[in-house]
Amino acid sequence: MGITLPRPAGDDDWWKKAVCTSDEECAELFYSEASGSAARAKRICFSCPARSACLEHAQETGENFGIWGGLTGHERRARRQYGRP
Of 45, 57, 56, 58, which Cα lies nearest the Cα of 18? Predict the structure, then answer.
């Protein structure tokens, strides 16, 4: 059984457009700790039409794990720490 990305509550129009929700293998990539998986996931994010809404969702909800909007949990925490949106 693979990983399923957590589906955001409420308005999910951006979620329906997200490239990472297309298949189970993609979802596993976004939550994998394997070497190189973050770089591969980020490459997918950079071509995704839902990238900015995804990042906004992760920032608003305090999502600490996985790649959201092209950033790792560590990168999102650093942005919050320095007051960047």
Answer: 45
Share of the chain above pLDDT 70, in %: 78
Evaluate whether 57 touches 32 at the Cβ level (below 8 Å).
Answer: no
CB 8 within 8 A of CB 57: yes
Tokens standing for 38? Answer: 């973050």
Provide the β-strand partners of residue 71. Answer: 68
pLDDT bucket at 33, cuts 50 / 70 / 90: low
Identity of the residue numbered 58: A
**What's the DSSP call for residue 11?**
-
* Cα separation, 50 vs 13, whole angstroms: 9
